[in-house]
Design brief:
Strand content: 15-25%
Shape: elongated
Number of strands: 7
Number of helices: 8
Structural class: alpha+beta
Radius of gyration: 21 Å
Distance between the termini: 42 Å
Helix content: 40-55%
Length: 250
């Protein structure tokens, strides 16, 4: 994705608050400027901050500050040691990221994370295709994914969950997958191998599942369970078809 850099002026109280508002205009030098204060004496338009609308944002912005106090808004996470990350907004949804990085999305049975997924899944008697389906929905295999509530990495681990699972770097793919698989395994055991309940617990927490005695009535959680199951069924069918075709040719 092409680097997008913005001159960010008059941003005195940047905070990830739903409903925050940005304004944008082009200055006399042709620079696109974003600010949280309505500009004066220039033609400007109002833009929505990622994460300010319902659901997940279709993009992610990072706010960095330099030693001189100047701030940079960019869609790239790493900006070097000269800049300090001070705020994050939004994250790409799986569907948007898959459309933008179709060639980079890991197909079932291949990709840079396949070995660790298979290793960790089989160590706990889980189907690697199930784990891949969870990752697909959680982050679309983006190891740098960050949710609006602070979940990180491929399997979107929350800080407290990561600590509990011994994960010290949630952006490290190996640690993240190991922790996520362990947590999914734990949820399956807690809910007597009922996949829908385990998936709901992975998304909304086991307490919510127990409190509602089933899948919680949260739109996000219900959609999550449906999407993971849909991916799982699709990829299982694809794997079976490939196995059948292979056996026919042998």
């Amino acid at each position: 994705m092409t680097l997008i850099r913005f001159l960010f002026l008059a941003l005195l109280a940047w905070a990830p608050i739903a409903g925050a508002q940005l304004y944008t205009y082009v200055d006399a030098h042709g620079t696109r400027v974003y600010t949280d204060q309505p500009p004066s004496d220039v033609s400007y338009r109002q833009v929505s901050v990622p994460g300010s609308s319902a659901g997940r944002s279709a993009s992610q912005l990072f706010v960095y500050q330099g030693a001189d106090g100047k701030r940079l808004v960019t869609n790239q996470r790493q900006q070097g040691q000269a800049l300090t990350l001070i705020a994050t907004y939004g994250r790409p949804t799986a569907s948007v990221r898959c459309r933008l990085r179709a060639e980079d999305v890991m197909p079932v049975g291949s990709g840079p994370y396949d070995a660790i997924i298979v290793q960790e899944a089989l160590a706990r008697d889980l189907d690697p295709v199930l784990v891949k389906s969870v990752i697909w929905v959680e982050s679309c295999f983006d190891p740098q994914a960050v949710s609006r509530v602070g979940a990180h990495g491929l399997m979107q681990l929350m800080p407290a969950t990561a600590v509990e699972l011994g994960v010290t770097d949630r952006f490290d793919p190996e640690q993240n997958i190991r922790g996520g698989v362990a947590y999914l395994y734990r949820m399956l055991n807690r809910f007597d191998q009922q996949l829908d309940l385990a998936l709901a617990a992975y998304n909304a927490g086991p307490g919510a599942v127990e409190r509602y005695n089933g899948i919680p009535p949260f739109r996000e959680t219900r959609n999550y369970v449906e999407r993971v199951n849909a991916h799982y069924r699709l990829h299982v069918a694809k794997s079976e078809a490939e196995s059948t075709a292979q056996a026919t040719t042998d």
